[in-house]
């Protein structure tokens, strides 16, 4: 027999999953806690025991998105090794996340609600931006080693990830386009690496 704690955890996950589905289909304001409870197949009281309000539920969705984005193992910077395979590993890792249907579902809910009610997500999004990512750590190490041009770390990271977001994120979030095919993923990944190294790599160390 499942322990009470494990059962409670499963119910919490079911509630969050139900909230994601309902927020995505109907929007935050039009979704009731009653509907979330029905979709999760739990009582309304159970929902409120876990989440006193819809705002708390939305914060949990943001937290889940944050955990997904930082769960990937860091790609370490390796001095003396060619840059391209290292940058390729960074981009492939990000592409894998962007092609995860569960992550895209989370992102659709989060960004859709952020557009309609920016104040609801400002504090949490600010927290996400403050998180030191493995990508930023890699860029800073490469800059300190003189192999990547100096520049604001976030700006450098944004340029590297811009092609991915252009083709593998925003069309899927805003227009509902399908996830990229494996062949298209490879094309976009190579494009991102080429643009980044063309502009940011220091010529005498380029490999």
Would you write up a description of this structure?
The chain has 207 residues and is mostly helical. It folds into 2 domains: 4-52, Orthogonal Bundle (Arc Repressor Mutant, subunit A), CATH 1.10.10; 63-205, Tetracycline Repressor, domain 2 (Orthogonal Bundle). It contains 11 helices and no strands. The protein starts with a helix and ends in a 7-residue tail after the last helix. The model has no long low-confidence stretch (mean pLDDT 85).
What percent strand?
under 5%
Kindly state the mean pLDDT as a whole number? 85
**Rg calc:** 20 Å
The poorly predicted ranges are none
Into how many domains do the coordinates divide?
A: 2
Measure the end-to-end span.
58 Å
DNA-binding region: 32-51
Domain HTH tetR-type: 9-69
Protein name: DNA-binding transcriptional regulator, AcrR family
Keywords: DNA-binding, Repressor, Transcription, Transcription regulation
Main attributes?
207 residues, Arc Repressor Mutant, subunit A, Tetracycline Repressor, domain 2, 2 domains, elongated, DNA-binding transcriptional regulator, AcrR family
């Amino acid at each position: 027999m499942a322990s009470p704690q494990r059962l409670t955890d499963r119910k919490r996950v079911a509630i969050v999953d139900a909230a994601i589905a309902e927020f995505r289909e109907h929007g935050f304001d039009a979704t009731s806690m009653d509907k979330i409870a029905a979709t999760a197949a739990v009582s309304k009281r159970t929902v409120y025991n876990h989440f006193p309000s819809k705002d708390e539920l939305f914060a949990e969705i943001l937290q889940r998105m944050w955990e997904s984005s930082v769960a990937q193992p860091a790609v370490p910077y390796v001095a003396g090794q060619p840059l391209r395979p290292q940058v390729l590993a960074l981009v492939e890792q990000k592409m894998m996340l962007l092609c995860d249907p569960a992550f895209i579902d989370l992102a659709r809910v989060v960004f859709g609600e952020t557009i309609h009610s920016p104040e609801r997500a400002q504090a949490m999004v600010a927290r996400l931006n403050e998180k030191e990512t493995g990508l930023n750590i890699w860029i800073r190490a490469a800059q300190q080693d003189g192999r990547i041009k100096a520049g604001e770390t976030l700006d450098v990271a944004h340029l590297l990830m811009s092609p991915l977001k252009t083709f593998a994120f925003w069309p899927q979030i805003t227009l509902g386009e399908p996830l990229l095919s494996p062949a298209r993923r490879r094309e976009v990944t190579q494009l991102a690496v080429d643009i980044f190294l063309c502009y940011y790599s220091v010529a005498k160390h380029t490999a």
